[in-house]
Amino acid sequence: MPKTKLKTVLLAATPDPELIVSMGAKLCYSKADIADLEKTAKSPEFIDRLTQMGHLSPIEHASFSFGIEGVSRALLAQITRHRLASFSVQSQRYVNQSAKKGEFSYVIPPSIEALGQEAVQKFEEQMRTMQGWYEQWVEALGNAGEKSNEDARFVLPNACETKMIVTMNARELLHFFALRCCNRAQWEIRELAWQMLALVMEKAPALFKNAGPSCVCGACSEGKMCCGRADEVRARHRALKEGCGHE
To answer: Which residue of the set 180, 190, 234, 238 is catalytic?
Structure first.
């Protein structure tokens, strides 16, 4: 069974997202026609001011769709807590996980890899055991496609890989990055969040230049739960912006 690796791609985005956000905001304060707004609206400084004012509803006009693969079912349970998003997820009911159809791929936590090759081999052996359990139940349940898969999958682990397409508007993405780019977030969804941030920062730098946990631009909001590594987070964020050519 293959070990899998996280991969994120930006599949689609609102054309010129910063323009539509600026138009939405300026419309609230202007008597100008929409055609006139389009000629004058876009401005990084205006978007900065919009964010500082806390006028965030116009940011919802921009949306971004991501293709995500190489993530675990454990991550799926976390990301779907972000309810202002749309999800299409590979089904374990309709997609057979047996060896005949291609064994299930899985995610190995870095903490287990850090224990050394012996630990990794033990983990892989456990995955093979669960693969065997799954196939036994598929067979016992009549090998009847989704009718068998839907109950045989109960023995599959959280490590099982899944694939999904996720769409969020820019305001929800800012919220997502604030929570999930934080060092206190679980390692897998944190890495996903940073990959997603890199993609949207390149597409809409003014919208996302300060996106991330609170410590990127100020004090940590976690209080006594602070990780104490704000400098590390800021350095990663700075490198991300430099890599996108925006600083």
So the answer is: 180
